[in-house]
Amino acid sequence: MDAKQALTDLTEISSQIRSAVLIELDGVVAASTLEGERAQQMAHAASELLAAAERTRPGLGPGTLCQLEIATLEGSVFIVRDHGRLIAATTGPEPTVGLVFYDLKSCLRNAHEGKPTAPAAKRAVRAEREPGESAREQPDVPPASSASAGKPVTDEAEPEPGAKGPRRRRAEKDDAAS
To answer: Which domains does the chain have, with CATH numbers?
Structure first.
């Protein structure tokens, strides 16, 4: 997927993003929700903010910081660096920080890897989350193996040979009590 499509998908799935710009390693704007000179200005400002944040922390060298949030009363600026690219985005006040970072990282990954996204599926995963639940995608459930096919499901797992399972422990307790 190209950078423009990745940003389009980002704005479809994240209602919190007001503007975004995807920046290549050399500082060139790969895609933006802003027009012309405003996109270049935002890209330059994001690069400068990231560099300034790296200078304020002893031990961090250029290119080591991977994400940054700057919060103001009017909204936030988010910057994420991954795969040699940057993405910068603005939001309104009090965004869901973890979710915004997750969406920006996904956008960078999609633009880098060229993998298609499924915005409707991502919205469905978000809708199922409880408040305060992690913004990470839910793991896939592995298919049932052929070894377990046809076996009845029980509440109590059978211990492996030689292991002290629930039944063996009960027998040992009974022996100790007598």
So the answer is: 3-128 (3.30.450.30)
